[in-house]
Structures are given as C-alpha cells and as structure tokens.
Amino acid sequence: MGKITFFEEKKFHGRCYNCSSDCADLHAYFSRCNSLRVESGVWVIYERPNYKGFQYILSPGEYGDSQQWMAFSDSVKSCRAIKNAYGSAWKLRLYERPDFGGQMVECSDDCPSVHDTYKLREACSCVVADGAWVFYDLPNYTGHQYLLELGEYRQHGDWGAASPAVGSFRRITEDGLTESCLQIFFYEDKNFKGLQYECSSDCAELNSHFQRCNSIRVEGGSWVIYERPQFMGYQYVLMRGEYPNYQSWNGSNDTVRSCRLIRHPSSMHKVRIYERPDFGGQMVEISEDLPNLVDRWRYQDVHSAHVQDGVWVFYEHPNYRGRQYLLEKGEFRRHAEWGALHPSVGSIRRVVDSS
C-alpha cells in the first residue's frame, strides 16, 4: 500500500512518524511537518483533518523542506495513498462550462500550459475516463494541486477547487507523477556548490532564482538551457549526468536564463541533410551519431534538414564542440530555422531518453 514518514523539522530531523495507511487525523502524532520521505506509493497529504484543505500529491522520494512540495505552511493534518488509479491509456475530457457543457477537449498527455495548448483559461467540468491526474491552478505544474481520479466532475468544486482556473495538469503513473524523475539542478558555483535551484519543468525566466550558473546536475530527462530568457540565445543540450563547470557543457560563460525539457525523445532516429536550401542538391540519411560529419558528408555546410524520427543536436565543430542547435521532428528549409547564423555543421548527435 505504501509508506510515508513525516518529520517535524527540516532535513529529516526531529520527531518523526511512519505511516502505511490512510489517516484522517495526524495531529496526535506530530504538531508540524517540515520534511518527509515517501518510501513507496503515491500519496496525497492535506493541510486539514479528514482529507480537507490544500492538498499535495507526492511521488516516492525525499523532501527535505516543505517548500519542495510547494506547501504554504508546515501544517499536515491528514494523508491517504492513491489506490488502483494508474492508467495504461490516460484519457481526460475538459469542458468549458459546468455539467459537461460548451467546448470540450480530450487529453491523453501532460500539459504544462492549458491556455497555450487548448486555448482554455478555465475548466468548469471534466471526465476522467482513464488513469489519475493532478490539476494545478497555474502553468508549469505550480500553484494549488487537485487530485482527480476515475469519474465525473460536474463542477470545479467537485475536485475541491475554489475556482475553475486550470493552468496545467499531468498524469500519475504507478511510480508517481509522470515527470517527477525529470529534474535538473543549477548551482551558482563550480563543482555543485553555492546557491542551488531545482527545476522539473520548463522555465522561461531563471534570473529570479540565481544570478550565475557554474555547474549543473541532470538527474533525469534531456534538457535545453539557454543564455537568454524566453528560450532564446545560445543553447546547450544536456543529457543525464554531471557538469562541474560551464566548459563541460561547452558554455562560453556562466549565464543561464531559461531552460526546457525535451519531451518525447524517440527510440528511432532518422534525419536527412541536404546540400542546398529547400531540400535541394545532394542528400544523405543519418541514423547514428557522427562525431565528424565529413566522414559521411563531403560538403562543409548543411543548408536544410528533415528530421523524420527522434530528436537531434547539430554542432558547428567536429567531436560535439562549438555552438549547438536542437532539431526536433519536422522540416527545416534553411539553417536559420534551427537557429544557426551560418550552415556549418561539424558533428551530429541523437538525443536519447536518459530517464
């Protein structure tokens, strides 16, 4: 069924309480909660007894500070394990009006911004047809959280929300929230020292979290970091691993201002590169990493490309050095469409799922 341990102080200190079943009133066991450890199962904790008040959905892992689960206080008064809610073909229907009225959209994947993806600012009712989901009232999986299990919700109050605002949502798997293991850690100083910031979703503006970045640890997923806000400027693709200084990700300085997660890396990889713009001239098809493109391609430049499968990174120099450019599935009729100032490509590498 699962196990969760609550600690009164931060970093797993102070009085603790082990729990392995639903508990409607935790007040008798501890007076406050500043850290907790989820050893197994997926849990919902509540700020009030009898499963009421603000709720937080937690996957297996360690939470050394209440801010890690976005708590608004150190109050935890009840908890329950999510039972038999894991889907294999997640399906969710959102409606713009109560009682399943108005525009409807059907969803089967995580959504970091409901407005950007579906042009909805509110969801007044919904049907969970398969799986279990978490609604957030703000984009990028932030703000208040609401658990929705299999069933019908005729109005937003049915899932416990004070308003119908839904900024983002994501699925729950048997191992927890679908992106809980997709994390990147930024450090202001080299060798993972100094001020630290943890991120598990796209962030268009990192400046408010740290001033400089001299080392990075990627614990899950593949990420693109950018030297400017709003996913602009020079970009660097980082896969799972440790980067003790900015030179280790080919950075030219300690400036990191935005980042995003690469979603849907594929097990199949195929890209076609062309000698001229608009897919003209000679073409070669590539399905594996190439540390030196001239071994397969006699030309100095690549003027257009068609990514048929997978996600790729183009480097301006051999051996995966120099400026990097991320190419996801689609057509690129000229080098400017993948962000390059000139068509020089020295090496090519696939992005693989490292989670």
Describe the fold and architecture.
This protein has 355 residues and is an all-beta fold. It has four domains: 3-81, Crystallins (Gamma-B Crystallin, domain 1), CATH 2.60.20; 91-177, Sandwich (Gamma-B Crystallin, domain 1); 195-261, Crystallins (Gamma-B Crystallin, domain 1), CATH 2.60.20; 270-351, Crystallins (Gamma-B Crystallin, domain 1, Sandwich). Helices cover 1% and strands 46% of the residues. It is built from one helix and 29 strands. It has one helix at 114-118, and strands at residues 3-9, 13-19, 35-40, 43-48, 52-58, 61-63, 78-81, 91-97, 101-107, 125-130, 132-138, 142-148, 151-153, 168-173, 176-177, 184-189, 193-199, 215-218, 223-228, 232-238, 241-243, 258-261, 270-276, 280-286, 304-309, 311-317, 321-327, 330-332, 347-351. A four-stranded antiparallel β-sheet has the order 2-1-3-6, with no helix packed on it. It has a four-stranded antiparallel β-sheet with strand order 9-8-10-13, with no helix packed on it. Strand 11 and strand 12 (142-148) form a beta hairpin. The longest helix is centred in the N-terminal third of the chain and has 5 residues, at 114-118. The two termini are 25 Å apart. The mean pLDDT is 88.
